[in-house]
Amino acid sequence: MKTLKTFGTMYLLVTILFSCSSDDSNGSSSGGFSLNAKVNGANYSNSNHFDPMAVITNNVLVIQSSDNGGNSIQIQVMNYEGVGSYTSGNNNLTAGYINYLKAGATVGQFRTFTSVRGDGLVEITEVTDTYVKGTFSATAPENISNPTESAEITEGRFKAKIQTQ
Predict the structure, then answer these.
(1) What whole-number distance in Å separates Cα of residue 157 and Cα of residue 34?
(2) Confidence of residue 165 (pLDDT cuts 50, 70, 90)
(3) Which has fewest Cβ within 10 Å: 53, 58, 80, 81?
């Protein structure tokens, strides 16, 4: 449980880091970059102010997206080797994850749903020097002890700009 709480804190920090990164497009999304999905049947689409971003470091791919309402989706692929299928779940944090962060009514109120407690699938279909493209889906229970709610993430697709380091 301590690992999952630490994971939640790390997730929040990464979300803030990516949300505050510089954007050369002066507030408008460009280049055809997007991250879209259905979360419990409702449409999720990245903010029109920030492109979804990807970072690849030490064979780990992280994709971050935020919508205009403060919600976000983060995907982590461990042992990333390019085009292929990657699964997560079975309470195995080392397999990567698909997370949905649902913003609350006030600052600091949020709920995290993670495929670590459920299952997830990421399929990378295309990779270039500037972007990564693919699809994803997950059953993501809330990241608390004995969760009673879950986020069903379906029809996920992305084309994320690779952040150079």
Answers:
(1) 8
(2) low
(3) 58
